[in-house]
Amino acid sequence: MHGLIVLILVESQSAVLFPRPVRLTWLLLTITFTCTDMGCIQSIACNKSRIKRENIVVYDLSATIDHCPTVIEENSPIVLRYKTPYFKASARIVMPPIPRNETWVVGWIQACTQMEFYNTYGDVGMSSWELPQLREGLVRAISDSDGVSYPWYGNTTETVTIVGPTSKPSRFIVSMNDNFYPSVTWAVPVSESNTPLLTNIKRDQSFTTWLVALNTTSREKILLHTIKWRMRVDIAVDPSLPLGSRARLVGRVHQEQPRVLTRMEPIPLNAMGRPNANDAQVLMWRPRRGPPLVVIPPK
Predict the structure, then answer these.
(1) Mind listing the pLDDT tens digit for each residue in 142-163?
(2) Residue 161 CB: number of other CB atoms within 10 A?
(3) Mapping DSSP to helix (H, G, I), strand (E, B) and coil, where does residue 182 land?
(4) Residue 28 located in a structural domain
(5) Does 7 fall in a domain?
(6) Which superkingdom does the taxonomy of this entry point to (predicted)?
(7) Using CA of residue 290, residue 247, residue 281, residue 130, what is the dihedral sign?
């Protein structure tokens, strides 16, 4: 950055009011300009506009969970599978012109804020997928990124990148979807026996999803919307019945619809980076008698 000083001579009012031979009085004005590395000469008052929340238009915001029940699959003698309805979010965005050489990414960031996931095997015990830091209250949320595109949920339909400078507004759609499709063993996961003993599956998981504009140069974040949603599954199993007729849904059939908050909720710092929920979770075996056992440690 370099400084440029311009000197300007201006005839003073006293010189105009008095006739000659009164000596003209001149005032010396000094105006300082800033010359940036980009070669733009700016006055102190000349400052390129920044991207602000009120300049970003969000419309057709949608957040839903499909109005259909969880589907149970009993095709395998080794595992039961279930597929929940999809959570879906989408929004149309109008991004104002970007006056600088900046890059902005607009998209979805998601974090898990609560998880209970228990598979009960009669009076033998239960297996549970757990997020230790979340369970112990050490953090308020765990990133639910795809594990590659931190902090974003994904990098296909979930984000759009705008490289400045741009002279016109940018119009685009960002969308995402999420659901559960896990496998649960019929037999006790730490046993060498293949005898089906699974009697119940219970899952209750909550998420916060943010629509965000992020300046990748300055790391400035502009929160556009906050969504909260929850997925619950309750499956009763009779392991004595033939494969294909053991499991049934109990409790609520359809999920509660997501809530779009009227206020912005800040993103916890640890929800912006590693680890994500898939890498942080651990599978525990908790027998009715004896100490718990780590079956699958975190990555």
Answers:
(1) 999 999 999 999 999 999 999 9
(2) 14
(3) coil
(4) no
(5) no
(6) Eukaryota
(7) negative
